[in-house]
Specification:
The protein is of the alpha+beta class and 231 residues long. The chain has two domains: 2-111, 2-Layer Sandwich (Dna Ligase, domain 1), CATH 3.30.1490; 119-230, ATP-grasp fold, B domain (D-amino Acid Aminotransferase, Chain A, domain 1). The protein has helices spanning 2-13, 24-29, 43-53, 84-98, 143-147, 159-168, 172-176, 186-202; strands spanning 18-19, 37-40, 57-62, 75-79, 106-111, 119-128, 132-139, 150-154, 206-217, 220-223, 227-230. A hairpin with a 2-residue loop joins strand 9 (206-217) and strand 10 (220-223). The protein is globular.
Amino acid sequence: RERAREVLQGASRRDTNRLGVEAMELLDAYGIPTPQGDVVDSPGDAEAIAEEIGEDVVMKIVSPDILHKSDIGGVEVGVPPEEVRDTYEDLVVRARNYQSDATILGVQVQEMVDLETGTETILGMNRDPQFGPLLLFGLGGIFVEVLEDTTVRVAPVSEPEASAMLDDIESAPLLQGARGREPVDRAALVETVQRLSQLVTDFPAIVELDINPLVATPDGVTAVDLRLTLD
Ligand code: ADP
Ligand code: MG
């Protein structure tokens, strides 16, 4: 909780109310699993992180001015170590082309998660003036806008409530292992819903938060992307 507070204070010092993957530590602090990796501000440091990870990585532009990174070519998946430096430069150029005066905090170098066995879900929160923090869970990735298959509860949620959210969506069978797929780690998903519930309950300053995608696999969950707004 103390660590989470520091992350949020760091952000307010940068006088922005919008945070992205640079705030992933907030999730770490609440025990929500995130991929190995870090945000760096030079091609050399990016290479060093990639070497630590030791396999192909994902690289993402980190800028409070860029909300949907992949829309502007700001996400490169499966980058081999020898291409990390050039990719760093490419990502910055694309961001500048999109908005020449964008604040660029750097580039996130992240471990790849397996999307073959994983299902992209979304876990988010919107603070409603009347009802308070509304937790939203559903199918994530590109499906979230197309299918709008989501369910909502007021935080804080109990374990049975969190569990019920998973069964509430139309695509529930997908998580339960339809069509020969292995079921996702349900306990980890329920736990993560509760942990996010706790986080947004502890920090009323967070008015909006989205983990999209939260990748659910048979062996656990990983929060791959984060975006949040402070009041
Ligand atoms: P944005 O939503 O801002 O475009 P994301 O970080 O969500 O950026 O990345 C876009 C997409 O790239 C994700 O929905 C996912 O399909 C893929 N992706 C992102 N990070 C990873 C990762 N670490 N491993 C595998 N795929 C990833
Ligand atoms: Mg995303």
